[in-house]
Amino acid sequence: MLSPTTLGQGLRKGLEGQPKKKERKRPGKRGSAAYKQARAHSSQTVDFEERVPIKGAAMFHVTGEPMLPPKPLEALSGDLRRLHDHVLSTEKSLLASKDPGYPLYAVRVPEGKCYVDTRPSEVFFLRFDHIFEMFLTRRLDFTIVRLFALHMSSVMKREEVSQICVADPYYMHETFLSLSDFERKTAREYLENFMVQNKDQEIVLLPYHPK
What we know:
The chain has 8 helices and 4 strands, in the order ααααββααβααβ. It is mainly alpha-helical and 211 residues long. The radius of gyration is 22 Å and the shape is elongated. The strands form 2 sheets. A two-stranded antiparallel sheet has the order 1-2.
């Protein structure tokens, strides 16, 4: 386990010496070859990989089937292997049941920990499909991001790491913040309260969901 001092020093070292932003080159005069090339490049839609392909992996999760092909599954160990096997055994139990439920985990947010714990945010649901997408290294669903943020916050408190705090990203949706002034005020009030309660911390981490 990392001590609070070691973790704090590591973060400080990582934040120092960040590479400087490169100066943006001008495309040149209008009509020149460099200008036309720059215009063509800027007009293209920015594309990026939302996943790291896994050979032999299924496109969609099939309930009761392993989430990974045999070879990647053999290489899986530790908590990830236990999670995979628990999901698989739960799905098989649901399929064998006469009254099967929906394959998901229910997560209850602890009270009094600077998390958003008012209804309906005090409980959220992690679908097994989201875990499947995580194993296939696709873009993480926001519920997994929130669960990880709450987990990291509990780790910081348990290990008494006084330099870092992790805020609940519940309100940090671009779609939520763009609804109206009421939603933005709600998010602002939460962050203000969180900052006041954690005024002694040096670093505040807050995940944000852009879409």
